[in-house]
Each structure stands twice: as C-alpha cells, then as structure tokens.
C-alpha cells in the first residue's frame, strides 16, 4: 500500500524562545511524519543558527481559528468609548438642566401655602 505524500507528512508550526524571560515567537512551518521528528527538524534548524532555550511545535490541524461570525463579533469589542472621559461630556449639560429644574426655597415659599405644625 503506497501512501501519498500529503497523507504521510503533517504540517507543524514552530515557535521558539531565545532566553528564559523572552516570549515565544513564531518561526516557520515544517512538514514531518510525526511530532518527534518535527521537534528534531526544528532543533536542527535552530541550533545551527542561534541559541534558544525552548522550542514548541504545534500540529497545524490543532490550531483553532475564529469563524467569520466570531471575527465579526470582535468589532463590537473595539468600541472603548466608555473608557474615555470625553464620552461623559453630555453629563455636564444634563446636570445643568437638572439644577435649573430643581426647586429652591424661595420658589417653595412663593406658593403661599402655610405649613401646619
């Protein structure tokens, strides 16, 4: 039974970290028949070029990407006006209008009603 190339090899994404305090960074993709060989190929590629303290390989099929509907929902999360004080500028005008409608002592006394004790 002969296997086709695309059935034998799997795609892996490679990430590496240069120092213990650095963040993981994406490097490249590679084809390998399994995870162990993918790690060996990634190590061979990096160890010749630069020092690294960690390498991660992730099978591409294990990476979940967002659906078009999920990406569309991100736009609603982009509205951060509530975090800016300029978004509350209307409150000053609203407060002024409220203060003008408030009853003051003179207005209440002008009604001429007597308070019973």
Automatic annotation (TrEMBL):
InterPro entries: PaaB (IPR009359), PaaB_sf (IPR038693). Gene3D superfamilies: Phenylacetic acid degradation B (3.10.20.520). Pfam families: PaaB (PF06243). NCBIfam families: PA_CoA_Oxy2. This is 1,2-phenylacetyl-CoA epoxidase subunit PaaB. It comes from Jeotgalibacillus marinus.
């Amino acid at each position: 039974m002969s296997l086709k190339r695309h059935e034998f090899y799997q795609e892996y994404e490679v990430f590496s970290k240069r120092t213990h305090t650095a963040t993981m960074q994406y490097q490249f993709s590679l084809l390998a028949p399994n995870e162990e060989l993918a790690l060996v190929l990634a190590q061979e590629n990096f160890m010749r070029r630069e020092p690294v303290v960690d390498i991660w390989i992730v099978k591409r099929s294990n990476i979940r990407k967002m659906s078009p509907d999920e990406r569309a929902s991100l736009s609603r999360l982009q509205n951060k006006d509530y975090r800016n004080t300029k978004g509350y500028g209307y409150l000053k005008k609203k407060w002024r209008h409220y203060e003008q409608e408030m009853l003051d002592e003179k207005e209440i006394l002008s009604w001429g009603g007597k308070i019973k004790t």
